[in-house]
Design brief:
The chain is α/β, with parallel strands linked by helices. It has helices spanning 11-22, 37-47, 63-72, 88-97, 109-138, 144-155, 162-171, 197-214, 239-243, 245-260, 279-297, 305-308, 322-333, 337-354, 358-379, 382-396, 402-422, 426-442, 450-457, 461-472, 476-494, 499-505, 511-522, 526-536; strands spanning 2-7, 28-34, 51-54, 78-83, 101-104, 180-188, 220-225, 231-237, 266-270, 301-304. Residues 310-316 have low confidence and may be disordered. Keywords: Cytoplasm, DNA-binding, Phosphoprotein, Transcription, Transcription regulation, Two-component regulatory system.
Length: 537
Amino acid sequence: MKTILIIDDEYYFRQAMIKYILAFQDEYLVIGEANNGKIGIQKIKELHPDIILIDITMPQMNGFEVIEYVKYNNRASKFIIISGYDKFEYAQKAIQLGVQDFLLKPITRDNLYACLNKVSNLIDMEKEREHHLTKLSQIQYSSKSYLRAYLASQLTQENYELENLSTLAKEANFSLTKDYYAVLLFHVRELPSTWKQEDIELYYFTINNMVGDLLDPSVGFISFTNMQKSLCLILAMDTLHYNNYQIWLTEMFMQITSIINKNDGYIISAGTCYSALEGIHSSYIEAVSIEQYCLFYETYGIHYYSENSLKMSDYAKVLVTEEFKRQLLLAMRQNNKTYISNLIDTIFDTLKLSELFPDTFLLQINNILLIIIDFATECGIEKTLSSLHNFAVSKLLTIYSISEIKQHILDIIFFTVVQAQSTASPSNHKIIKKIKEYININYINPNLNLEIISQTVDMNLQHMCFLFKKYTDVTIGNYILQIRMEKAKDLLLNSTDNISQIAEKVGFEDVGYFSKCFKKYYGVSPKNYITKSLWKT
């Protein structure tokens, strides 16, 4: 059974969560609650919950500050953010802090249960791994391969006790006094989905043995399989091997990949060589960064950090332009799926060629999401808009490659367009009403035109004209003329103004043109209209 702590400043929301979780009482138990971050930290210290459901915006300490505090103090609790806000920067911050999941309010019992199960499975996997390592220590690392794996995993950590690892390194026959150290990650993308962790470890055990056979005996190495299902290798070498490090390393892995027949499906990411043992952690972080970059762009082969580091720092490009926004909105309004697909293909090709680092890439994707949200808002599909936010933010937390992101963006667009087509949109009527109200107030302006009106209602001019004609069966230009003529008729009958003054009051600078329009509209000139009206009276 997993224990749960709820941290949220809304009392009734906490009670609702407790009620939901009671339905899963055989698997989960709420052991405490807190109404702000400060009290939440005290509860965490006292209760040591397995899972923490936490809001972002709270008094005294916000959710992110609580998460940072807990992570800094190396507590094992897993976090699920529950928030009513779906801001993209929240999702980014959650990713950076290693939050396990992100749920948007309102929350259903089924969504909560699925999320809890996902985090529970992760906890079980980590506990199993910790139990495994504990067991190794209890039997005094009788298996040398496990001993070396444990040493490798410890050396990649930022903080470790060198004194404690010295004896371990000696038993594992790994030198801690070599000239240079570097970390490599070997990752195969196409491993069978049915493989369990032990299958993956067996596969990498084979790779590990090949590395041992092909490496020069003077180059030491240890390895372990990390949580990202990558084989992590730590190399220890002298200055001679450091000088041509990339050459012999590339040759060795070309031999390995030719043997295992994975020439197109593997990623080898190599961190920088460091002259101090403390540099192993930095080299590991670099290798992880390269691996994430290559997975994201689906780029295979051998990659060295020094070759890619410059590409990761480009945060200045704005590639989702106003012209792209205009074209995508137009395509969505027209329900032109082919045009939509072509636009998305083009922008993703552009983004891919720019080789942005994943975080920067996602900022560009956020701009596309904002366009889709603009369209959903314009069409008045509020329920769809809520689902869209939930879908988009949650998916961006778990997506690993560009092709997956592109497919999800297309799914979101087509889903939104279908909803817009099938829903009678009250917002269209609101837009028509807004246009009419603006014309009724500003018909006196002789410069009133379609461009001014489209800017006022913040809508594409062509789409505005299409909607107005669709819902009123009259063009905007004719509607303006209708209002002006009706006002002119009223003034002719009920005011003492002359025809020139009336023309000016209804938006005509040229009295002759006014008279021409009036005669065309009513079939009689303004002067004759007054005469006929007086005669009838």
